[in-house]
Amino acid sequence: MGQGPQDDDSIDLIAIFRMVWAGKWVILGSFLFCVTLAYYYALQKTPLYRATATVIFDLQRQNIADLGEAVTGGAVVSATTDLQNQIEVLRSTALIERVIEKQNLVRNPAFNPSQAPPESGTFDWLTLPPEVEEFLKSVGLIAADPPPPDQALIERRQRLAMINRVRSGLSLSPVRGSSVIQIGFTSTNPRTSAQLANAIADQYIVDQLEGKLEATRSATQWLSDRVLELQDRVAEAEADVAEAESQLAQEAGQTLEITQAQLVEINGALGAARARELQLETQVNRLRQALAEGADVGAIPEFREVGLIQSLREEEGSLLSQQATLLTNVNESHPSARRLEALIVETRRKIDEEVARVVDSFQVQLDGAKDQVAVLTEQVRELEEMALEQSASEIGLRNLERQAQASRLLYENFLGRLQETSQQETLQSADARVISPAEVPNSATTGGKRRILAIGGIIGLLLGGGLVFLLDRLNQSMRTPALVEEHTGLRVIASIPLVPNVGGKRHRIVDYFREKPASSLAEAVRGLRTSILFSNVDAPPKVVMVTSSTPREGKSTTAVLLALTSQQMGRSTIIVDCDLRLPAVSTLLEFDADKPGLMAALNGDVPIDEAVGVDPDSGLHVLQFRSGETRGSQNAADVLASQKFRSFVQDLKERYDFVVLDAPPTLVVSDSRIVSSSADGVIFAIKWDDTPRGAAAEAVKQLRSTGAPIVGAVMTMVDESKSAKYSYDGYGYGYYGGRYKDYYVD
After folding, report:
1. Which of the residues 48, 236, 369, 461 has an alpha carbon 20 to 30 A from that of 180?
2. What is the spatial distance between Cα 211 and Cα 194, in angstroms, rounded to a whole number?
3. How many of the other CB atoms lie within 10 Å of CB of 324?
4. How far apart are CA 694 and CA 697, in angstroms?
5. Distance between the two ends of the chain, CA-based, in angstroms?
């Protein structure tokens, strides 16, 4: 369908619906055709019988030991996933192969094609002698015998074919919201369907038991191997611990606790020794500094505490007292005075010697304290090194003990699991059970036929819709005003409906227009006249040319109807037949055919009044063109392009209120482009659902190249019953005519 004035990417659902509705009979025909074929196909099908067995899968059952947990650590699987897994097991090749063996389907021709009787060929009756057959093979007329096939490969292919046939009849349906699986089987034999559905269910139970038993045995074997391995690992770990303990005791001679206690004790003694050393060092330095500064010995506590020094000081004091008494009586040179002086000096020397001995004794004590600190420091270092070595050895020992303990716990855990799984081998039960075995169906299933008919109907609808869409895309005509504007750029100002039952006779359209002034045709032409007048309110067109792209598009009929409408509205109107090659106006209107024509008036042979004919019914003035009026080498283009013609049209414009020029098709001849220069407005006629889009676009392009004043387009011969099916998007009121016929009297 065409685009509207708003060019966007939105989907016009109404347009699609109208397109589908317009092609409803094509879609319906396609639907009925495909449904008929599907019904015929369904009738040819062999009746099928479907039997169903119901199995419930117990997802909540717990065994003595969860083998999956023992092996994998207990991975969590959802119920939906587990149920889907069971469906895949039911469809597995291994399970179906066991069903084939149990049911002996190898001998059933319905499942084993090799058991079916050979089909007789057309020429099987013809047997050639061996000599002739060999000769024909040698010359290539008969294909040589192929090499013998591999028997194992043939058997495998036959087995795969049987598996595929069983699988094609199998249907598995989980019941929503439960742990139930419906196992259905469909075949041409009702008893076979029931037997195979039950056989698949039974084999599924057996497969579960065998699978669980095999899993239990595998888990038991795996646990046994692990227990033996862990037992050896525990023994090795415990031996490593014992060896490490023995080696540690042998190397250190004492434990780490004893070493640490000794270290604490010696560290205490070392602290006391260092304090004693500091005290003595401070004391010696203070004494030496006091002696160096000449301090009074009696003022120093360490010297006062020495008895000998105190005695000597008292003796010195006594001598000094005697000396002072003696010197009051004698002079210093007196022998007694000198003797006392000598005694004082001797006493002081002894005091100094005793002081020195005291300082030396403190120095000796200081040296002893330093030696003690050094010894204790060395002992601390040795004990610390021993403690570090013992600590490192203890760490290794603890690691070995932890490893041994971990190995022991793991061994005990696996040993317990081994005992559990060993007991479980005798207690296995399936996680599924049959709650409803399959019964032999009494009648053939109808789902297949209904499904075929439904598929046929869907295909028919899709095929019909696709065909409608394809036909719409392949249609290059103009069906909607939107298409006209899209391809020509012209606005549709009117839509002239198709007049029924005219038999291709154009004058009957004019008669219908006259007889039914309240018809949709008359209303459409009046609308065209109104659109022309209002195309330029300030200067309404008085000379209007009507043309089209190709012949037989209704342009002459439209021109006549437009002129008649103008005349009926009380406007003096004349229609001029400007198609000098195939004039058509005279065939549409009845008037005096003996009247001189357009060329006689142009050449001045007769006055205009004598050349103009009058329609007796409407009073419309008509200026026809009579064949044979052109002179000599004159052609239509020369006549219409002459200044004489333009002056003639101007004269008519002054005489009449409205002048209609019926011009020839634009793409056929150049006359319409020439005549357009004499018109105030150009009406471009487009036949509905017939005029090619490219032709209309090219014609409008040619008119515009000459500056033609195109007012708009008019769609002619519009089938109102069909046009109403196509989208209406706001262009032209004529598309509503087919819907509201109560307003017209047709």
Report:
1. 48
2. 25
3. 10
4. 5
5. 30
Residue bearing tokens 């469809």: 91
Q: Write down the pLDDT at residue 744.
A: 60
CB atoms inside a 10 Å sphere around CB 456: 22
Task: Say if residues 241 and 401 touch (Cβ distance below 8 Å).
Answer: yes
CB atoms within 10 A of CB 141: 9
**Buried/exposed 392-417: b ≥16 CB within 10 Å, e otherwise:** ebbeebeebbebbeebbeebeebbeb
What single string gives the DSSP state of each residue in 251-303? HHSS-HHHHHHHHHHHHHHHHHHHHHHHHHHHHHHHHHHHHHTT--GGGSHHH
What is the bridge-based pairing of β-strands 710-718 and 681-687?
parallel
Q: How far is CA 96 from CA 165, 166, 377, 529, 711, in A?
A: 10, 7, 89, 84, 81
- Per-residue pLDDT tens over the stretch 108-121: 877 777 766 655 55
**Rounded Cα gap, residues 250 and 586, in angstroms:** 143
Q: How many Å apart are CA 746 and CA 517, to the nearest integer? A: 9
pTM, to two decimals: 0.48
More confident: 479 or 250: 479
Q: Which fold has domain 480-740?
A: Rossmann fold (3.40.50)
Q: Phi/psi of residue 73, each to 5°?
A: 95, 10
φ and ψ of 391, to 5 deg: -65, -45
pLDDT tens per residue across span 626-655 = 766 665 456 778 888 889 999 999 999 999
Count CB atoms within 10 A of the CB of residue 25: 10
Distances (CA, A) of 556 to 71, 408, 574, 589, 645: 96, 113, 14, 11, 20
**Residue 430: what pLDDT?**
61
Q: Is the dihedral of CA 325, 329, 332, 333 positive or negative?
A: negative
What is the CB-side half-sphere exposure of residue 541 using CA atoms within 13 A?
Answer: 27
Per residue in 351-392, pLDDT tens?
Answer: 777 778 878 887 888 888 888 888 888 888 887 777 777 676
Q: Which residues pair with 49 in a beta bridge?
A: 187
Question: Token digits for 633?
Answer: 């080498």
Nearest to 364 by CA among 281, 307, 288, 290: 281
SS (H, E, C) 440-498: CCCCCCCHHHHHHHHHHHHHHHHHHHHHHHHHHHHCCCCCCHHHHHHHHCCCEEEEEEC
Nearest to 51 by CA among 176, 200, 164: 200
Q: DSSP label at 125?
A: T
Residue 682 CA to residue 700 CA, distance in Å, equals: 10
Q: How many Å apart are CA 583 and CA 556, to the nearest integer?
A: 9
Distance from C-alpha of 358 to C-alpha of 355, rounded to nearest angstrom: 5
Comparing CA positions, the residue from 202, 719, 253, 215 lying closest to residue 499 is 719
Structure tokens at 519: 């018809």
Q: Which amino acid is at 273?
A: A
**DSSP per residue over 89-124, as a string?**
HHT-HHHHHHHHHHHTGGG-TTT-GGGSPPPPPTTT
Work out the angle between the directed axes of helices 555-568 and 506-515 (0-180°, nearest 10).
20
Q: Where are the domains of the chain?
A: 256-392, 480-740
> For the purposes of burial, counting CB atoms within 10 Å of the CB of 735, is it exposed (0-12), middle (13-18) or buried (19 or more)?
buried
Question: Amino acid identity of 458?
Answer: I
